[in-house]
Design a protein that fits this description.
The radius of gyration is 20 Å and the shape is globular. By secondary structure, the protein is mainly alpha-helical.
């Protein structure tokens, strides 16, 4: 099912050089993750004793090694995702808590990458950060897909018969593919802006320091947009569990539209197309 996301997210990124950079800091990353997650009241029942902490530690180590070493579409990653999902469901861990842990690891590993990347190689850091964020996006889709599929399969198995369970499972798979396509499409816009800015920076299109700084700001804004989309997925999980509600928020349509146009400007230039200068 991850193939449905590839036209939107691009091919799964290679993290070879990031693997050695981040695995060297595995203990520090784990320690910071534990400090962060233990402050969550919802997480308390799952880490309340040494046995549960040890289980979490093993699971986190396996995930980090697989995340940095193997592509998301590999058999090893799929089997690990299924095993972790089954374990989480068995102990009653909700999807929103799993997503909170995923979001926490994304932030910690991104900070570690930025701190340990060679000074002066700004373009290399931007490209490495973009690959890491794309890898997390793929992993998030894999995790949500496995969680949703396993949960639906278990619910259906407790129904009135195997035939009905199989029919519901097929519907679930179709719904998952729809979710992947929709989510991937939403992730594609900031990714396209980020990749476009990086390409133009690499080609040296921006001659002035002010232009380069503006391009870097736009690339950072696209990365923040990806983070916001991850927050939206977490919000959807909470809505699905009835633990949250929709809220009305005032915003400027013109400002939002102009921001999207600015981020897509580099891509439009590559395609030889013009974008409107302003939004009415």
């Amino acid at each position: 099912m991850l193939r449905a996301a590839e036209p939107f997210l691009g091919p799964p990124p290679q993290l070879d050089e990031l693997r050695y950079l981040l695995l060297d800091r595995a203990e520090e990353i784990s320690a910071e993750f534990y400090r962060t997650i233990t402050s969550s009241v919802d997480a308390a029942p799952f880490i309340e004793n040494e046995e549960k902490l040890a289980r979490l530690h093993r699971s986190l180590g396996q995930w980090m090694e697989a995340f940095l070493s193997t592509p998301p579409e590999s058999q090893e990653r799929a089997e690990l995702a299924v095993r972790m999902t089954v374990t989480h469901l068995r102990i009653g861990m909700p999807l929103e808590l799993t997503m909170l842990g995923h979001k926490t690891l994304r932030g910690i590993m991104t900070r570690e990458l930025m701190e340990r990347w060679p000074a002066g190689d700004r373009l290399g850091l931007i490209q490495a950060t973009e690959r890491l964020q794309r890898a997390f996006d793929y992993d998030l889709l894999l995790m949500v897909s496995c969680y949703h599929g396993e949960a639906v399969a278990r619910a259906d198995a407790a129904g009135t018969g195997m035939k009905r369970a199989n029919e519901r499972l097929e519907q679930s798979l179709q719904a998952q593919e729809g979710l992947l396509r929709t989510t991937s499409h939403e992730l594609r816009t900031p990714l396209a802006g980020l990749v476009g800015m990086l390409r133009m920076l690499k080609r040296g299109v921006y001659k002035q320091e002010e232009e380069r700084q503006a391009a870097l700001d736009d690339a950072l804004g696209a990365a923040h947009h990806l983070q916001a989309l991850t927050d939206d997925l977490l919000h959807l999980a909470r809505l699905d569990l009835g633990r949250d509600s929709f809220q009305r928020v005032n915003f400027s349509v013109r400002a939002a539209s102009e921001e999207v146009l600015r981020r897509l400007e580099s891509r439009a230039q590559e395609l030889g197309r013009d974008l409107p200068a302003a939004v009415a």
